[in-house]
Specification:
5 strands; globular; alpha+beta; 22% strand
Length: 175
């Protein structure tokens, strides 16, 4: 580990392995088949976040989609999904009927990650003009998502409509 980037990657991989070990030991009634992507690191991340959602009473909608191969590095994937789920968890605090929907799939030579959550804005002065350029809600997490997507040759689409906030990351399979 001669550079900070290599050290960062090593720490993230160790963290993913610890999450997997933790998730395996503390399944707490979650079916062993959920979620199943084919990647132990990704499954650990999704299982750990699902457990938090369950504890907070947030409905988690995720249909397992086995990934034959991941077109991006598992570190980038965990950065994207981890940050998006953290943001969704924060947005769902104090929300009635809170839901988080995750979709991860490949279609039309593209790999996509879509995370949507309920986000009801209660006062007009709290609503930003442009969710994509607003940092007060997400801080560095959304910037990390965008950077990881761009590093993989992809991009992000951020929307807020009908009290649903969503981020879709699209990466070409050829990247």
């Amino acid at each position: 580990m001669s550079t900070p980037t290599e050290a960062y990657k090593w720490v993230r991989i160790k963290f993913a392995r610890l999450n997997l070990s933790f998730a395996e030991r503390t399944n707490n009634g979650l079916p062993s088949a959920n979620p199943v992507t084919g990647s132990p690191e990704i499954d650990a991340l999704l299982t750990a976040k699902r457990r938090i959602m369950r504890e907070r009473g947030i409905e988690f909608i995720y249909v397992p989609y086995p990934l034959a191969s991941l077109p991006i590095h598992v570190l980038d994937f965990c950065t994207i999904v981890g940050n998006l789920l953290d943001n969704a968890l924060n947005a769902c605090k104090n929300q009635l009927n809170a839901k988080i929907n995750v979709s991860i799939r490949t279609a039309d030579d593209n790999f996509s990650i879509h995370v949507a959550n309920t986000y009801v804005i209660t006062s007009s002065d709290k609503a930003p003009e442009d969710f994509e350029s607003t940092d007060f809600i997400h801080g560095y997490g959304l910037k990390n998502v965008k950077n990881s997507a761009e590093t993989c040759g992809g991009f992000c689409v951020i929307q807020h409509e009908n009290d649903i906030y969503s981020v879709t990351v699209i990466v070409p399979m050829s990247s």
